[in-house]
Amino acid sequence: MHVVFMGPPGSGKGTQATRLARHLGIVHLSTGDMLRQAKRAGTPLGLEAASYMDQGHLAPDALVVQVLIDRILEPDCANGALLDGFPRTIKQAVALDEHLQQADRRLDVVIELEVDEDELISRLMSRGERDNRVDDNLETIRRRLEVYQRQTTPLRGYYVNQHRLAKVDGAGTMDEVFDRILAVLPEKEGQCVG
Ligand code: AMP
What is the pLDDT of residues 103-162, one digit of tens each? Predict the structure, then answer.
């Protein structure tokens, strides 16, 4: 199964994505994690990405598409993958569709976690203190939320047109949210998703 996981920063997307990927037995690909890893490794790509990430801006489409597509075409993703934080722009979504189609694969569902903005800010502030993330401070948080609204929410329309978008209320406990996610998964032949 190929799943895209969308949600503003602080929506619990990473935690729920990890859990869902394990549940479905598919690889969890987070472009944010990949870029942070490349930054730590000090590769040219990582350093270029860092200049955007640390400010709360999106990294350039071409750079992120290259990282994600190279990875999703590896053999361990042949049965599917859960994409966490990608695509974030229409250009990325179109590139993803094209590459999957060439490999005779397609997206099954796009899940969007919804959480109200005050709750997002308070969750992100406490994560910044706990994990020492440079991009979790108030100014950068506000920019990332604004970037999400401006650049990523247009993806809703794109996926609504494809009849793939499933919205999930992200309020409540981790288990409550996870149950809501399971309820919107399409059933696939021979695969137990419940
Ligand atoms: P995340 O961990 O998903 O919140 O991503 C952290 C940062 O990595 C983002 O604020 C962006 O700077 C960058 N990033 C991650 N995924 C993407 C993407 N699909 N497109 C552009 N930038 C991205």
Answer: 999 999 999 999 999 999 988 888 878 887 788 888 999 999 999 999 899 999 999 999
Q: How far lies 96's CA from each of 14, 117, 123, 125, 132, in Å?
A: 20, 28, 30, 32, 32
Peptide bond into 154 cis (omega under 30): no
Tokens 């401070």 appear where? Answer: 137
Q: Which residues pair with 188 in a beta bridge?
A: 191
pTM confidence score? 0.90
Distance 94 CA to ligand 1 centre (A): 17
- Quick one: 70 exposed, middle or buried, by C-beta within 10 A (0-12, 13-18, 19+)? exposed
> Catalytic annotation on 88?
yes
For each of the domains in the chain, give its residue range(s) and CATH number, in order of start.
Answer: 2-29+80-185 (3.40.50.300)
Is there a catalytic annotation at residue 156?
no
Instruction: Tell me which residue has tokens 């981790």.
Output: 174
Q: Ligand 1 centroid to 59 CA: how many Å?
A: 7
DSSP summary character for residue 116:
-
